[in-house]
Amino acid sequence: MDQFFEAWVETVIRVVAQRTGGRVATGRNRETVVPLRWDPPHQATQTSLIPDLWVEWESTTLIVDAKYKRHWEELQQHSWAQSAESIKDAHRADIHQVLAYAGLAKTPKVVACLAYPCLLKNWLSLKERERLFQKADLAVGSKTLQLWLTALPMAASTNEIAEPLEKQLRLAIQ
Q1: What is the pTM of this model?
Q2: Exposed, middle or buried, 15 (CB in 10 Å: 0-12/13-18/19+)?
Q3: Residue 68 C-beta-side C-alpha neighbours within 13 Å
């Protein structure tokens, strides 16, 4: 299911990129691989970083890491303080991972996005209340970096799901 969700997120991101003029690269197609050069080489653990999705515009890079986990639903139902330690630890690792990817971008603006699955009824409720995105700004040298958390249902039309993401990205790439 994690590969299916990742492919679904890719489908939605491709629609958004097409509408906004972005260029898409995918980890699935090995287009986003960034090798790690270890010294000494035989001690290597992880040999590369492979972001799921990488979309570039002239001044902005969007990096999306699709996570087939219940974190979004969990964080919507419970406060951070009430969430289980295992959820907190996994979520923290997800954030660190996507921020590591963000450090690879060369554009002045970077959006690092974690995308989680959610139920359609929850997504519609969040959309109606304009709460589909949780955002944090980080100062990283001369770059503008935003961390986004969002959710995508798998039981809706691509166009319906792409619309709010497109709206947010148009604001980011201005």
Answers
A1: 0.89
A2: middle
A3: 11
Q: How many other C-beta atoms can be found within 10 angstroms of the C-beta atom of residue 73? A: 15
Segments forming the whole domain that contains residue 140: 2-172
What local confidence, expressed as pLDDT, does residue 82 receive? Answer: 62
Provide the domain count of the chain: 1
Q: Which residues pair with 56 in a beta bridge?
A: 23, 61
Length of the chain: 174
Q: Which residues of the chain have pLDDT under 50?
A: none
d(CA 12, CA 60): 18
Identity at 30, one-letter amino acid code: R
Look up residue 52 and give its two tokens: 């799921």
Phi first, then psi: give them for residue 59, nearest 5 degrees: -110, -5
Question: Any idea which residue has 């001690």 for tokens?
Answer: 43
CA atoms within 13 A on the CB side of 29: 8
